[in-house]
Amino acid sequence: MTEGTSEVELRAVTQIDNVWITMSDGCRLGARLWLPEGSDAEPVPALMEYIPYRKGDLMAPLDARVGPWFAARGYAYLRVDLRGAGDSDGILADEYLPQEQDDALEALAWLEAQPWCTGSVGMIGYSWGGFNGLQVAARRPPQLKAVVSMYSTDDRYADDVHYLGGCLNAFLQLPWASFMLAHNALPPDPETVGDRWREMWLERLDQTPPNIDEWMRHARRDAYWKHGSVCEDYDAIGCPVYMVGGWADGYANAVLRFVEGHHGVRKGLIGPWGHHWPQDVGPGPSIGFLQECLRWWDRWLKGEPNGIDEEPRVRVWMQEPYRPEVANQPRVGRWVVEDDWPSPRTDWQTFELGDGVLGGGSDQAVALKHRPVHRHGSWAGGWCPGSVDHPADQREEDALCLTFTSEPLPERLELLGRPRLRVDLAVDKPLALIVARLCHVAPDGTSTLVTRSALNLTHRDGHEGPIELVPGRRYSIGLELNVVGQAIPAGSRLRLALSTTYWPWLWPSPEDVELTVFTGEGSVLELPVRPPSPSDARLAPFGPPDQAPELRREILASVPPYHTIRRDPASGRIEFENDPQGSATTRLVDADLEVSWGYLDRYSIQESDPLSAKVLSERSYELARGPWRVRVETTSTMTSDAQAFHIDDRLDAYEGPRRVFVRTWSRSFPRDHL
Predict the structure, then answer these.
(1) How far apart are the first and last CA of the chain?
(2) Number of domains in the chain
(3) CATH number for the domain that contains residue 73
(4) Residue 464 sits in a domain of what CATH number?
(5) Domain annotation covers residue 1
(6) Could you tell me if 190 and 83 lie in one domain?
(7) Which in 55, 240, 442, 629 has the greatest CB count within 10 A?
(8) Are 390 and 520 members of one domain?
(9) Helices (H), 148-196
């Protein structure tokens, strides 16, 4: 069954707004703690979420929906701010540093030593918290008995916000860095740290670096990225791991890859969701995910034989066709299961690339040429979309590519896995990338994105040692498309679209690249077709999302997120403006704290001039309580020429109306085959 453990009597919960966990070097980490009633007399297992996202303000509303829920069901819940974040001491210099993992080991040991804890601990988190759950598990701390890792990756280079197939992720590399620079520059709360807050703040402002510098210095998969990538040694992890992903998220590949690569106790779950907890996020349907986690914890932290470890190893949402719209909409479908991965039942169907057709014979072998169009990517949507910015109808995108379209399918196909593409090609420049999109074309012509992928062609033999291409030379290139779970009805067509541009997802090559594709038996698309199985229905459905506690807050002002595209036909200029989170001012009632934020990302490019590409990112955060008011703002830009990328950052900080800090950075980084 999957609807949850048997009903238990809910316990009263005590919330401790801040506890200090002192590291061996004297650094104190701030944490919020929820304890179930009676744990002082009868110790309970503990759950730890370990992230940089400020327990006292920015993340407080979400934390309030999770921590008390688990505490009421017999678990201590500890939400820790990383070193240098929120109320914790120190400086947060980068993602996933060894220091971060070392601190986690000490926090786990601290938990084990508490009189209210049995010594059994689980780690849970999404995104950053999902990453370090895996990374800490690979250190094998004795207290850590199980992990729930949502929207994370086992490979920091292959699947994260920095590089995609060896291509620079233009959509998120700079915006994410601008976000982290602003976030890390915020002060701790005076209500927690006292008069030290200003000294700690000025230290953060002075010492916090723009994280993007390290990311740009490492454009290939070197030791920097291998650190924290558990795929380097899956079996270093000794405790059970539950991997969770979403079809609308950027991290779904890692779920099935982890299940395949790890040989210990593991489960994989992929739903229709975006980048958030599955009980709260669209596209729907959402599920009773907290109840599912409770079953996992009850099995591995309390030793209850509830059967979750005997269920199929993989469960995914098989999506039915849906209308492609930029706004969230529920995905019709059903849950399907596999006892293991890769599934021995997968039927790989091969479609040969012909002259504009998918599924043509080798007698149609021709050389097809394509010139790039930089507005290809206008309707790509976001890499981790929220309520808006999902891929729209792809017909306009398809028209800008080299396309191969099948005949109407004689029977329904259900795809589950990673499609594989092998293509014979040549390019006319030494640096080039290729983008592949697979679409479902409905009888009315609507084109819905099914999956996509990209490859920096200088990385054709691996991401560690790029090699320039010889213009005009014919190469056989292989790439996997992103994992997919999608039903394609009979009578529909499949369309493969190829291009050498995808702005603003990918930073363009320094010169426009003409692509030649040689059709025939050397250019094929292989699709993982999964036959339906009666076993799909053997698990009970997930229950609905449970009613979780809500933090008392007032929305004082709010502007929803948006995505706009502006084109100037006369000049060929294309500009995308994206507010991925919206802007808002809220008041946290119990803390008497106002929290404000605003985001803006702008991407521009001139048609036929890849060196005109530019990304601008702005972030602002403001905190206020009575007369105390602080604000930080960042402005970041990224451009390039044929030899280098150029990045400028500006950080401003204000106490009340007075600016107390300003710093600018200007630097350049070699393109290194990008």
Answers:
(1) 49
(2) 3
(3) 3.40.50.1820
(4) 2.60.120.260
(5) no
(6) no
(7) 55
(8) yes
(9) 173-184, 190-193
| 110 shares a domain with 194 | no
Give 562-566's long-range contacts (Cβ < 8 A, gap of 24+): 562/388, 563/326, 563/382, 563/388, 563/389, 565/378
- What are the distances in angstroms from CA 274 to CA 125, 161, 454, 624, 649? 15, 15, 21, 31, 29
The strand pairing partners of 243, in sequence order, are: 149, 268
Q: Is residue 258 part of a domain?
A: yes
One domain for residues 626 and 571: yes
Task: Enter the tokens of residue 567.
Answer: 């084109």
Please indicate, yes or no, if residue 631 is contained in any of the structural domains.
yes
Distance between CA atoms of residues 661 and 91, nearest Å: 17
For residue range 602-655, list pLDDT tens digits in order. Answer: 999 999 999 999 999 999 999 999 999 999 999 999 999 999 999 999 999 999
Q: Say whether 100 sits in a helix, a strand or coil.
A: helix
Q: What is the largest CA-CA distance in the chain?
A: 79
Count CB-CB contacts under 10 A for residue 592: 11
Nearest to 106 by CA among 71, 139, 61: 139
d(CA 486, CA 529): 10
Q: Please give the model's pTM, rounded to 2 decimal places.
A: 0.97
In a domain, 547, yes or no: no
| Region 324-352 average pLDDT | 94
Percent of the chain having pLDDT more than 90?
92
Same domain, 330 and 375: no
Q: Write out pLDDT tens, residues 8-64.
A: 789 999 999 999 999 999 999 999 999 999 999 999 999 999 999 999 999 999 999
Where a domain ends, among 338, 371, 401? Answer: 338
3-state secondary structure of 53: coil
Which residues have a Cβ under 8 Å from the Cβ of 419 and sit 6 or more positions away? 438, 451, 480, 481, 484, 525, 526, 527, 528
Sheet strands (E) in 37-112 = 44-51, 76-81
* Residue 198 · residue 189 · CB < 8 Å: no
E strand intervals along 151-261: 163-164, 167-168, 241-246
Mean pLDDT across the chain: 96
| Token digits of residue 137 | 């598990």
Tokens linked to 236: 């270093």
The single residue listed with the structure tokens 């890769």 is: 342
Rounded to whole angstroms, the Cα distance separating 22 from 476 reads 56
DSSP-derived 3-state class of residue 276: coil
My answer on whether 469 and 516 are in the same domain is yes
21 and 137 share one domain: yes
Range of the domain at 628: 161-218+554-674
- The CA R_g of the chain, rounded to the nearest whole Å, is 25
- Phi, psi dihedral angles at 281 (to 5 degrees): -115, 155
Q: Are 660 and 634 contacting, i.e. CB atoms less than 8 angstroms apart?
A: no
